[in-house]
Amino acid sequence: MKPENPRHLGARIQRLEDPRLLSGRARYIDDIRPNNCLHLKFVRSQVAHAKLLEVDTSMVEDMFPGTIVFTGKDTGALSMKAHQDYPEMQYAEQPLLATDRVRFVGEPIAAVLAEDAYQAEDAAEMVFPDFDFLPVIATMEQAQDPALPPLFDGWKSNVWVERQMAGGDLAAARAGAAHVIRRTYRNQRQTGVPMEGRGVIAEYDQSMRVLTVWSSTQMPHLVRTYIAEELGLPESRIRVIAPDVGGGFGVKGQVFGEEVLLAWCAMKTGRPVKWIEDRRENLLASIHARDHLHTLEAYVSAEGRLLGLWADITVDVGAYSTYPFTAAGDPGMAAKVMPGPYDFQAYEATFRGLASNKCPLGTYRGVARPSAVFSQERLMDDIAREIGMDPIEFRLKNIIREFPYRNVLGFTYDPGSYEESLLRMRDLLQDDIAAAKASRTDPKTRIGVGVACFIEQTAHGTPDFTRRRVPIETGYVAARIEMMPDGEVLIDLGLQSHGQGMETTMAQVAADALGVTPDRVFVRHGDTSAPYSVGTWGSRGGPLGGGAVHVAATEIGTKLKLIAANLLQASPEHVELADNRAFLRDRPETGVDIGYVARSALRNIDRLPEGMSPGLAAEASVDGPKDGTYSNAVHAAVVEIDVPTGKMKIRRFVVVEDCGTIINPLVVDGQVRGGVVQGIGSALCEHFVYDEEGQPLTTSFADYLMPQAPEMPMIEVHHIETPTPLTPLGAKGLGEGGAIGPPAALANAVTNALDFEVRETPLTASAIWHMAQDAKGV
Amino acid sequence: MRPTEFAYHRAETIEHALALLAEHGEDGRPISGGQSLVPMMNLRLARPAHLVDVNHLDMARIEEDADTIRIGALVRHETYLTHPLIARHLPAMLEAVHWIGHPTIRRNGSIGGSLCHADPTAELAAMAVLHDARIVLASTGGRREVAAVDFLKGAYVTDVQPGELLVEVIFPKPTGPHVGTFDEVGERLGDFAIGSFGVRLEHDGTRVRRLATVCGGARMVPIRMTELEAGAAGQPLSALDPVAFGQKVTAMVSPSGDFRASAEYRRNLIGELASRTLQRARDQAMGMK
Ligand SMILES: Cc1cc2nc3c(=O)[nH]c(=O)nc-3n(C[C@H](O)[C@H](O)[C@H](O)COP(=O)(O)OP(=O)(O)OC[C@H]3O[C@@H](n4cnc5c(N)ncnc54)[C@H](O)[C@@H]3O)c2cc1C
After folding, report:
1. Which residues from A are below 8 Å from B47, CB to CB?
2. How far apart, in whole angstroms, are the C-alpha atoms of residue A717 and residue A733?
3. Fold of B178-285
4. How much is the pTM?
């Protein structure tokens, strides 16, 4: 629950890390320069699917003496293993370096290690793999064609996994329906683009037998765990450090083969080894995202009540299963979240992940939910159009109002503001809705308004991972806090902050419990020296990390009060901690500096109450609630389309969001806005394209189009705060939500503007022009 | 994404640059703004062994004589935006330049670099074609002039020979009253265009004396719609029909499609832009705006 009378929690304070980040004094992976370092360049497959017959490295030895080349012959069976323990799931590993087969353009074949990065790149050009080409699986149709051979020996088909999820009586829903509405929706493949790509440095200290790995990762502990298991080292002798990380967005929320390989290279060569990903590798071979195809069928009563939903979900997951969320992650998530914020009790979904000769799919901000919400919310509009109802009215008729709500799959939704946020949004859009109506007869300029209403399960914890049977075994987040004798506070947080502003938000949380100002709290993160936590992703940092900080800091705060009570000759209930002081609630002028209290606990311990042991440190961990906690939001887009050219301008983008207790509204605004921009990218322009040979066509920023500032509208963010009873602060997760709504909201706006159902993204000028051509009356 | 090894030479005079380029032949390459060449080198699509830095040469001026505007190879794109000679004589160019990349690109990129890079939808290439510009190339063997349409041979292919340097571009001045317009559509602001169209209209207040056009995105080089130009000459301004003109352009062009934009879209887009640019040019000529 939300703490009472917080001083710093909820305050709109500027981020404490910004001076460092904005003045170029951050320290990213490439800023770390160990002495005597070898630089690694990957030779990556340029073909999509082939037997790897031989890797000829003789030219490197001739032309670049001293250069080291490793191939799959050297790394052998070392591999990435990411298996979800479903009986239907087919098993496959990705070797760290290809051994006998390559399965996508970009797959690592060899590692070239040289004295500098230029030489490594020159030498890498002299490695010549010899291939025997195999038929390419480049489309969803091909992946489901039984005539084409599977990508892996021993597989029955190119389907990683196909499973069902169901609840309630769908046959009854179908039988009772006045309207049956069936639609197919498609989201394109894209990638996630952090400004800083990946990068790894590994160094092995042979005398101490300690391996240190610096990686631009969101999950240092999991990297440590995986390396330990794969290379047979004790976790105690591995330290993984994520320095300042220039964006992650989930892309860096997997353990990558490159991380394991660098560790192996450092041990093998006895020298530090460094690899900094370039942009082409980043686009080609980090992870890809989306690439969903959904067919939905809704059963609706004559009065416009949703009675049931049937879903068929297909995702092209690519060539390998990624760790730890696996090839079943995206399709399973889409099936799980499809029921959304609406009240109906019959559902059946089939989901499948297909294997293809493309870059493996991984987690990217929103993880399947942008696609699920796209389909769900497009469908809501299409139903409304078909039964002749206003789309917002139709949603209001079906929105969940009573909490806790047990959904059709048995998940319990904690309280939210689903209806209130939709009503608020409707008020905010009145003028735009009128303008859209007025433009309906204009042959040249059309205005459209679209909304997307969604919930987001956040703060996943151990119960969720156990249920999903993913390789992650645990989901708690931990923090260790220590107050120093001067009253300064040190937090070792198991998470990694790469844009979330945790150096500020965690300080705010601790500050309230410890009675100090946030500037006196130093938050260290991204280092396995902190207590174990599985990483920063899945919108868990605020609710769980903030929770752990709150619990640990409260424990220290309680002790501070006992000591202060002794010093002030009062009872502990009368002591308050605030403004760097401990004082009596009724007589604030009677008090001592917090440092004095701390000193009494750590140095001048003769001042401690009788029998109390010294020390001001505490560690706590907080796990996710059984079904997580559900944030909710409504996004709305107002667009203007120049019909003859298909050019679209976003006039307005509005968000009404509810993430429970807000720790810092500035940070929430920033997270939402950043997410929305990425969501706009998904909707309009980010598209990773392969041709029919599995050759990528968008391997630089000239072809892979990111959303840019000139096209961005002002993004208005409105907050509603419904604290959850399920986390220590009442906070719900909010890191991903911004990216979830825009594809649906924008597609609904285009649908509204052109009076034509949008079925797929990206909404390029060409695509919009074609839709306008096909629309009646434009 | 690191270039292959190269030697850097700073040329101090045009003669010096020409001598360096002659010496290194196929292995030598001038560099001016670096906005196209450096990315190509980082992608290892270009692998010059010798870079000849021409940024310090005396070819950064815009000059005028009786019949021409002469633009030095080093003139940066942003210069046109505030240059009175451009506004007066080459108004279409003023409109076109706004569409080139972003402020940093316009600050660094040069006309010599843009023309020699020869992107199919580069705005300055389109302007050179629209205005019947002549490209001046120098080498140790002397100078030669090539018409823009002959200079641009294909996507990223030009008539520049090893050892040659583009020193200036000569734009004939329009005679008498004239207007010029340009428009384009790209996926994002600053992207190379999917389609573009430019118009130069010389008139006497009531009739068309001469119509020139340029169309980007229809082929691998900017093209002129010569048939339509000829048909317009001598017509009353009021008889110019932008809609019909656009439809004709759509019918005449046959761009190819790709994942970004279909061929059908491109054809229609170019026609629409033709119609819009002609409409604005006609309205301006008739004093309506
Ligand atoms: C993000 C981005 C967006 C862009 N968008 C656009 C756009 O919308 N429209 C557009 O037109 N351009 C665009 N450009 C390209 C830009 O206009 C470049 O400036 C231009 O193409 C090249 O000019 P430069 O002076 O930088 O040439 P450089 O990169 O230095 O050289 C380009 C080529 O010309 C040769 N060269 C240079 N000078 C001479 C000379 N004097 N004689 C002979 N050869 C020479 C070089 O050897 C090289 O082959 C964009 C560039 C970027 C990076």
Report:
1. none
2. 16
3. Enolase-like; domain 1 (3.30.390)
4. 0.97
